Amino acid sequence: MLSKHSLDLLDLSRNDIKDAGLMYLTAQITKGAVIKRLNLSYNDLGVDGAIALAEAYGLNNKVTHLDLSWNRIYPTPGANFLIRTLGDNKSLRKLNLSWNALTVGIPLRKLLTVTTLKILDLSNNKLSTDAAKSIALRLPNATGLVTLNISNNPLRPADAFMILTALRQKAVKVQNLLMDNIVISKDFIAEKTAILKLSFRAKTHITHGPVTKNYTLSMPDMRLIVMKRIDFVSSRASKKCKVDIMLFFLSLQKTNEGPDIQIRLLYKHLVLAGVHVDIELIEEMANLFPGQPTDKGAKTVNLPGVVEYMSRLWPDKKLPPTPPPPPPPPPPPKGKSKKKK
């Protein structure tokens, strides 16, 4: 029986005690047993075990070193309850929660108010932006924290940068910020260099993963995509009749009544020319080169807009000059009329 007794160290690691076995221990803690250094790693503990441990520590919260690594306490009810309860501890110095698939976020704020906590290992979990925000916000409150290990979590470069910038505050006492295998940005490197030059960061050690490239992403020009598509389709018209799509639109602009053409009519002209295009492509043209809607609100394609864009894509293409109109027929020869007597 451990109740009302104190142990400096109890190592139950790699015993596969599971949640059911842990209940015997938590019962003793509830009755008053004090175990300062407790190692429960590699025991297949789950949500029930986490809740039982939280309930026990809610009554008798005097552990100083707790190792719960390599378990399965990730379900939110158990993990959140346990971490919040440990946040009420007044003597906790070292906590290892690595390898638990934790997704916890906001409860970390409470945990980081424990001023006696010196080493916190959250590595190899599933922490994301919520966790990063909580850590960055509460690091100034963790006045005793020397080592924070958040390596091998699916944090974004922006999350890593957010946590790093907290080290600009003199109130943050962390000396070892470990973020191994977390991808960072080029801005992170510049910020890290600046932070390590601060007088109170002379002994600070920061690790991180590879630097991602700062790509400048631009939206594709949908007009170009549509034009390339319709040019490709027209080039695959019947072998006997290849259609030059720009010359088609140049000709249509000359013969159409007005600058705009309805979708269905344009589709019909293309099919008659041998270009079997999907009507959805014509509808997209109407979105990209909009003409005046019809009286009934139907979309139209602005032919001058299409031709102007095509002329920039294919500046060498032009309609052949219009042949001059044929000369008028010569007037009939005037015959000499005979006067009747």
TrEMBL record:
Locate the transmembrane regions by residue number: none
Record organism: Manduca sexta
Pro residues bias (residue ranges): 320-334
Q: What is this protein called?
A: Uncharacterized protein
Q: Which InterPro entries match?
A: Leu-rich_rpt, LRR-containing
Q: Where is this region: Disordered?
A: 314-341
Q: PANTHER family, from UniProt?
A: F-BOX DOMAIN-CONTAINING PROTEIN-RELATED, LEUCINE RICH REPEAT FAMILY PROTEIN
